[in-house]
Every structure is written in C-alpha cells, then in structure tokens.
Amino acid sequence: MCLSDVVRLVEVSADGSAAVGEGPYGPVDVSLLVLTMDGVQPVVGDWIVVTTGLAVELLSEEEAVAVTRARREMKEGVP
Predict the structure, then answer these.
(1) Which CATH class is domain 4-76?
(2) Can you name the residues that pair with 7 across neighbouring β-strands?
(3) Which of 2, 6, 23, 71 has the maximal Cβ count within 10 Å?
(4) How much is the pTM?
C-alpha cells in the first residue's frame, strides 16, 4: 500500500494554505502548510508529492512524469 501520490495542482486557496490536486484516482484535497513553512509556495500547475493529505515535496514536470511512469510500469509489470 502506498500512502503518497504525485498530483498536479488545479486550485490553490487565496491564502495559499490549501489546494486541490488531480491525482491518479481523481481530485485530492491537499494541505500546503508543510511546504509553505519551508518557504515554498506552490501554484496551480505545479506537481507535488502528497502524503496522507500533506504536500511534502515540489517536483519538476520531468520528475513527476518519471515517477508516474515508473509507478505505472510497476503496476503493469513492465520490466
């Protein structure tokens, strides 16, 4: 069981503390507080790692694509 997902932000609250992301299983409500405490302010379109509802890492698009591809290949059993 995996407790983290890579999601792309589709909405960020006015105060920047929360967001909605689009993940592999649909929309995900996300707290951005961990990232904002580290001085990172995600915006719509950013890719993030979400663990149990908390955004814990900002990813580049290349990193997000690579992680998503690797997870899909593992799930499908592609060598």
Answers:
(1) mainly beta
(2) 48
(3) 6
(4) 0.86
Residue pointed to by tokens 């929309």: 27
Instruction: Pick left, alpha or beta for residue 45 (phi over 0 → left; psi -120 to 50 → alpha; otherwise beta).
Output: left
Q: For each successive 10 residues of the chain (79 residues), what is the average pLDDT?
A: 84 97 93 95 97 95 90 77
Two tokens, residue 59? 């990813």
Secondary structure of the chain: what % helix, strand, coil (to 5)?
A: 25, 40, 35
| Residue at 77: amino acid letter | G
Cβ contact 76:68 at 8 Å: no
Q: Name the residue among 70, 73, 78, 64 with its Cα closest to residue 22.
A: 64
